[in-house]
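Schema walk-through. Below, the input block comes first and the output block second. Nothing else is stored per chain. Lengths vary across the set, and this one has 150 residues.
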Amino acid sequence: MVRSPAGSRSAAVLVYAALLTACGGTEEPAAEEPSFCAQADGALADVEPAFDDEGDPAELAPVLQRAADEVRAIDPPREIETEWAALADGIERFAQEFAAVDVEDPASAATFQQRTNEIVSELSTSADAVQEYLARECDLGATESPAPSS
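--- output ---
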């Protein structure tokens, strides 16, 4: 297997941490909209394998695209509509970057790292808002994020 470009792991950690919170456990949701909590759990459950430390980013692209499509298909609570849409957009942008990178080309890998770092920066506020909502309204405990590695 080809090793993912440097930085892809750290970029993926932020998205994975936010998504893991959305699928964190089997507790009964306490939100006004329990279907949102259940749908988020189901839609994001298959994301974890996409963030293996090794692998061909091009193979991860369709997994991330499916996750983005599933996230978009969920009708989020009004309180986090904007953040939920941004999360889906961020996942899709990761999918596009993973599809475009050539791990054998140092320039492509550097561009990939730069772009994924930008996505992480842009996504952090929305991911935090979604994570806070899920902890508060869905009774999903805060998930400890693994320390990013580069």
